[in-house]
Amino acid sequence: METKNVMIVGVGGQGSLLASKLLGKLLTEEGFDVKVSEVHGMSQRGGSVVTYVRFGDKVYSPVIADGEADFIVSFEKLEAARYLKCLKKDGKIVVNAQSIDPMPVITGAAAYPEAVLDDVRAKGVFVDEIDALSLAKTAGNAKSVNIVLMGRLAKYFDIPYENWIEAIKNTVKPQFVDVNVKAFDLGYNY
What we know:
Layout: E1 4-11, H1 16-29, E2 33-36, E3 40-41, E4 48-56, E5 69-74, H2 77-82, E6 87-96, H3 103-106, H4 116-122, E7 126-130, H5 132-139, H6 145-154, H7 161-171, H8 177-188
Parallel strand pairs: 1-5, 5-6, 6-7
Antiparallel strand pairs: 1-4, 2-4, 3-4
């Protein structure tokens, strides 16, 4: 199998590291060679972050170059646009509909580009937009946006649903399993 590449992008504090850990664990259990990067960027709350998950028969590097990402999972709309150059021509973006103001917007130096996803779609890019924050709140914890997005991403993988649930159980703390399974279900069935 050729190597597949998933970029998980967002803002510090949103749980991108847990999402990449979950995906990496699942893919390893499925028998793939998997490389997961560390968080790159300002991992403090509010800064842009990116993690890479690469899997296949044999993977030599955890880094995804421009134009190589099969999927971008974005926790925030502007981050999806920021990393668009990394997406393959036929790649897909799974994006949370949430807007989080970056520092230039907070300080008044810039305005948030409200039509950012329309601009991405206008370039012919497949965008699967989901209100992950609302679904996470429905699941019982606003912090489970990351797992809602993993549930949505799962729709594009040929991996049984039960295997994703088992990976959640093996990745999150026991007291958070139920809310995360519910969050995953809501994203999966959106």
